[in-house]
């Protein structure tokens, strides 16, 4: 009876060991598979932020009966001029529509647009006035203001070159993954040169430093305010 019990125990122990070995072997094969097929592609490599020459434009709508720029339109032109001054040292173009019903009104307000630009600090010798052929049936062909500047940007988003099911089974990121995040990050970069090299440190404000150190020595809680 004792020998039969020992034989049964050895049989059970052998089964447990075989089962554990099978589980470990399965984990090993799964680990090998995960290490080769489940590494996601880096979206920063697939959608890198690059510095490119980009044309920035502002279309100013002009109706046939307009005789002066509205305050909201003037504010938009002023903001565009500020962006130009911070991003470019080249020329800025004012493109007037030609051949459209509102071409006369657009031409009449050309001086007003130019005045808003110069008032906001754009040198008059950098402003170039040109024209473009508008469609004859376009009742409100815009006056286009444009300049070219180095801008941080990514490749176009919204591309789907393959079926998403292929990525799901292989546990990989789909092609468009991360593109919107990279594009939004690029749009928030005010100075594209920050991606190339850091800026120089600003000079120390000696008066402010002396005031803060004095408050710290006195034990004031407002030293960091």
Automatic annotation (TrEMBL):
Record PROSITE patterns: PROKAR_LIPOPROTEIN
One Pfam family of this chain: Pilus_CpaD
Domain of life: Bacteria
InterPro entries with a match to the protein in the record: Pilus_biogenesis_CpaD-related, Pilus_CpaD
Protein name: Pilus assembly protein CpaD
Source organism: Rhizobium rhizophilum
